[in-house]
Amino acid sequence: MQQKGILLESGTNELEIVEFSVGQNKFGINVIKVKEIIQPLAVTQIPHSHPNVEGIIEIRGEILPVVNVAKALGLAASQNPNGDKFIVTEFNKIKVVFHVHTVTQIYRISWNEIEKPSGMYQGLESQITGVVKINEEMVLLLDFEKIVVDINPNAGINVDQVKKLGKRDRSTKKLVIAEDSPLLRKLLHDTLNEAGFDSIEFFENGQDALTYLMSVVDSGKRIEDEVQLVITDIEMPQMDGHHLTKRIKEESKLAVLPVLIFSSLITNDLKHKGKMVGANAQISKPEISELVQSIDQYIL
């Protein structure tokens, strides 16, 4: 599974997803996040733990928490526990096991096939980041980072990290940020404001961010006079962060822009993908203080 994800070329705007089910619903997870899929192991329960956490298991000497996805989504328990699966994942520099009901297969798709969730059913608290139609069925892409942060808020962006960096005046510096999660957009807005950045333009995906940047240069303005730096997530509907970075670096009038990738998918195994598309820096969520320091490095 890990090799399959890594073998995808960088910047193609494609991804592979593992399709799995919980109850009657079909869901997907990016293959890059998946370390392995195993049969359920005996779980050791932890007293007074979060209700969505079944307990812990040991895999090759590592103690990992097991999250019951059905409970996290408010869905019914498995009707056939013998067919259940454990998906072992790694993102945000942590490893977590997700208990699901079935795992079907892997699909290779383009990010532009993924629709962003409608405002009617998304909202700030939604656990759905995208919807894709596969074999006449709707597959929902889950926000696994949010599921983890709901259990452990300390795993999310922490404004206190930025306060320790001290006050700075960055009011004349404009940032463009591509981030599909409404909750993370708000957290980034509040945290970067605390760091002194008042001029921030947010976009829900790479395509919208690129359209904006191109509109600036098409108007005859120098991009470096209007925007000082771009921050992008990787996983986004329509256009992912690797493809956005590649497009910026290949466009002569945009290539001067520093691009920082801020994603849960920054690991030693995957950093080469960002380097291949020309990213100036890659920071793992939720290391917001490291992000701010990197911004300072490239816009001074």
Structural class, please?
alpha/beta
Quantity of strands, as a count: 15
Please give the CATH class of the largest domain. Answer: Mainly Beta
* Tally of discrete structural domains: 2
Kindly report how far apart the N and C termini lie: 41 Å
Task: Please write the string of helix (H) and strand (E) elements.
Answer: HEEEEEHEEEEEHHEHEHHEHEHEH
Q: Considering the protein shown, what is the CATH homologous superfamily of the largest domain?
A: CheA-289, Domain 4
Strand order across the largest sheet: 8-1-2-10-9
Organism: Metabacillus herbersteinensis
Modified residues (4-aspartylphosphate): 233
Pfam families: CheW, Response_reg
Domain Response regulatory: 174-300
What does this structure look like?
InterPro entries: Chemotax_regulator_CheV, CheW-like_dom_sf, CheW-lke_dom, CheY-like_superfamily, Sig_transdc_resp-reg_receiver. Residues 174-300 form the Response regulatory domain. This is Chemotaxis protein. The protein has helices at residues 2-6, 69-73, 144-151, 159-163, 182-194, 206-218, 223-226, 241-250, 271-276, 288-299, and strands at 14-22, 25-30, 34-38, 53-59, 62-68, 85-91, 94-100, 102-110, 128-134, 137-142, 174-178, 199-203, 229-232, 259-263, 281-284. The strands form 3 sheets. The chain has a 5-stranded mixed sheet with strand order 8-1-2-10-9, with no helix packed on it. A 5-stranded mixed sheet has the order 3-6-7-5-4. Strands 12-11-13-14-15 form a 5-stranded parallel sheet, with helices on both faces. 27% of the residues lie in helices and 31% in strands. The chain is globular, with a radius of gyration of 20 Å. The model is unreliable at 1-7 (pLDDT under 50). It has 2 domains: 2-152, CheA-289, Domain 4 (OB fold (Dihydrolipoamide Acetyltransferase, E2P)), CATH 2.40.50.180; 156-299, Rossmann fold, CATH 3.40.50.
